[in-house]
Amino acid sequence: MHCCSHIILLFGQAICTVGDNCYRAVTFLKEGMLVWILFLLCQVGAPALAQDLCQRDAPNGYKVRISLKTALGEDAYEWNQSEMFFFQATMAFAMRRHFQMETYNVDNIILCVQTSRVSFWFVVTSPDNTTMLIPKADVEKAVRMSRHRINNAFLLSDRTLEFLGIYPTLAATVNPDTPPWLIVFGVVIGAVCAGIIALLVSSLLQKRRKEKGMTEDGQDEEDMQVKGVENGINLDGTYNRGFTDDDRFTKL
Amino acid sequence: MRLQLPNPGLEDRILSHEELDKLETEEAGRGDRPKWDNKTQYMLTCVGFCVGLGNVWRFPYLCQSHGGGAFMIPFLILLVLEGVPLLHLEFAIGQRLRKGSLGVWSTIHPYLAGVGIASMFVSLMISLYYNTIMAWVMWYLFNSFQETLPWSQCPLNYNLTGLVSECEQSSPVDYFWYRETLNTTPDIGANGGLQWWMVLCLVSAWAVLYICIIRGIETTGKAVYVTSTLPYVVLSIFLIRGLTLKGSLSGVVFLFTPNLTELTNPTTWLDAGAQVFYSFSIAFGGLISFSSYNSVHNNCEQDAVIISAVNGFTSVYAATVIYTIIGFRATERFDNCLGGNILALLNTFDLPEGNVTESNYDQVLQSLNGTYPEVIQGLNLKTCDLNTFLSEGVEGTGLAFIVFTEAITKMPVSPVWSVLFFIMLFCLGLSSMFGNIEGVLVPLQDLGVFPKSWPKEAIAGITCVLCCLVGLIFVQGSGNYWLSLFDSYGGSIPLLIIAFCEMVGVVYLYGIDRFNDDIEFMIGHKPNLFWQITWRFVSPAIMFVIFVFYFITKVQETPMYKAWNPESDNFPTLEEKEYPTWIFAIIFILAGIPGLSVPLTAIYKCLRNRCCKKDNEFKQDDLNTIAKQVQLTDEATKNKPDIPETADGR
């Protein structure tokens, strides 16, 4: 539409310089018709011009494929002209964000070949010269930079809003410093070792207690004999140790 | 009528019934021989020993591949005819003779000591590799404590441009199992070195086992309260969760749909017999040991029937649970396959979404094929069939570590299910390991390998350390191949030989009459006709048939193994390779040594007896004196049968 107004203004200026007052009435009518014809041509020609720029398999264009039902299921919104306009606005934003100096507008994004899948092609023209297309690589960089924002604008994801040819960057996996399994292993081994040591120590203590109990019984008897207690009866006098080994001599 | 082989001196070697009763009352105070704290501990230990990993990952596969519900028929028949009699026999003989497996067989006849030694070797070999499986389970368990399970996605390659190619070609679960867990080499010859993370897991598996067996059945009896009951809890949780998932019922239906024509196939019966046999952990010697710690009048007949029933029920229950999850996974795969095809059609022909659904997919495909055949050809659409996905039946480690883990990643809150599943597997395996280790430790003590003064903590510790060191074979790069080698040859044929010798030994050497009397003394009534027929004819015949068929099939087939080789042509399918020739020596050692130790020990004892026969002759001459006569009259009263006063009937 922009180009049409430019052409009409230029032609109008050209007509004004030629004509004089006498021919003004006749030429005015002719002007009107010409303007009208030009207007019609513009309407047809401008899109035709844009059509040349944007077509299926355009060298500088990208195909976009949108899967609304897969992404949103019941909450899927309808894809209509307003959504297309929103897409143009989003792409213009992405281009502005990438090329910070240049002011892209909705008109710079040309869409074509829409299907009911929902898929379409788009090309981006330069804001200074509407016949010049922005090369594919630059468009890719702009899309990659703002991919997250574009996805969120449409409530979609990398998988459901596809730019065929622009692969989503893989999310780098988070690698923790200590692998989590080592931590669990450490806990388990620590608990088991503590248990083993506890059980070994307790059986050692049990054994020592048993041994102590047995030696104490043996010592008690000898002590009682020396003190002069035999069979629990206190004897008068001291016990003569010289006779303790008597048993040895009576054996044959 | 009764065939009884001559067995002189048997009376001198065994305790008579009166002596047993005396021992029962005397031993109550002493801590000489270990005893169960209560009957529950004994039952749980036996159930834990019998119910193992095979119930979870071998039985469902057999069931599904041999005609589903129809497989129950040979399984139940052989359970009754083969499993229950063998179990009763082992329980009764252990309880009567009150010794471990080596002691029991030497008591019955000195030449039969080889059976005990063979049991010990088999238990030892199986302990070695079984604990490696526990190490794998622990590795997966340790890795389950993460928000995103590491086997749910492929890792990125070195320069972060894409996924690792080995993972991309196969699947994240395959990659995690073969590369990040096993780090497997393409060939059994290439040993690949020790994998440090698996060494740590192996050490932790042996450490956990050691703490449970450190004081024998005193600690084992406490541990089984958890390890034998937890699997049932987890199975029930999984059943409830599984039934709420989409497609689970198609899995269960697929599992149990009977195909009666399979019953005419002899392999079905053979596999059922083998499964019953291995599932009951017979001939390991562990069950004999466990029942020897019982009181004399424990009702071993009832125990045998109960444990067999529990084992059979657990197999069926576990199969149901596993197949609900497999049904879910198969349905998920089918949906993905179909979804992929539908998306391809929508994208190529720019049709609006929702035009092609699962219901009209075939129609649409046909009409499109009619109008644009070349385009359809170019798409390379996969054929999606639910039954093919369901019958991707896997068994063994493949089921647990590949198929099931994949299914878990698709369930919500995956880490919880993963932790539960691997704790269940760990408990199942640990309780089986208790029996295996018992079958190793008790014969070692009986043989006198360790000095008697050493405490049992030290003996158990040394055994565990040595087994751990030998088990390092299985944590190398080629460890998985060694493990399946040990599994196929070390754990199959020797057990059949031992079980056959056990039956023949008890029935014909010990004497079925004496055995019947013993059982009458212990539980109060004579074993009925069913036991007589099965012990004397049916079960040994079944053992023999299974052994012959197994032997023939194993000898005829060329031993092959499946290798994971990323360079092979049809990767990711496993590559079938032949074993190298030096493996045959190892196979001979694994299968031959336990099997041959039965006759070899008999021959050795016979030769030793012959050369030392002179000493024996002196014992047989008795001096005929009045004192001897007095003794004779005492013996006469001794021989009269005594009605036991305490008929516990427990």
From TrEMBL, chain A:
Record-level GO BP terms: positive regulation of amino acid transport
GO cellular component: extracellular exosome; plasma membrane
Membrane-spanning ranges: 180-205
Classification via InterPro entries: Collectrin (IPR042944), Collectrin_dom (IPR031588)
Signal sequence segment: 1-19
Residue ranges occupied by any Collectrin-like domain in the UniProt entry: 58-252
Subcellular location: Cell membrane
Keyword Cell membrane included in the entry's annotation: yes
Membrane topology: Single-pass type I membrane protein
Keywords assigned by UniProt, alphabetized: Cell membrane, Glycoprotein, Membrane, Phosphoprotein, Signal, Transmembrane, Transmembrane helix
Pfam families linked to this entry: Collectrin
Chief site of localization: membrane
PANTHER family: COLLECTRIN
Protein name: Collectrin, amino acid transport regulator
From TrEMBL, chain B:
InterPro entries (alphabetical): Na/ntran_symport, Neutral_aa_SLC6, SNS_sf
Family designation: Belongs to the sodium:neurotransmitter symporter (SNF) (TC 2.A.22) family.
Originating organism: Oncorhynchus mykiss
GO CC entries: brush border membrane
Intracellular or extracellular location(s): Membrane
Coiled coil feature spans: none
GO MF, any single term: symporter activity
Superkingdom in the source lineage: Eukaryota
Keyword set includes Membrane: yes
Keyword rRNA-binding: no
Gene Ontology terms: biological process: sodium ion transmembrane transport
Protein name: Transporter
Keywords of the record: Glycoprotein, Membrane, Metal-binding, Sodium, Symport, Transmembrane, Transmembrane helix, Transport
Positions of Na(+) binding: 48, 51, 55, 279, 311, 428, 432
Membrane topology: Multi-pass membrane protein
Ranges annotated as spanning the membrane: 42-59, 71-91, 111-142, 196-217, 229-256, 276-293, 305-326, 416-437, 458-477, 489-512, 533-552, 582-604
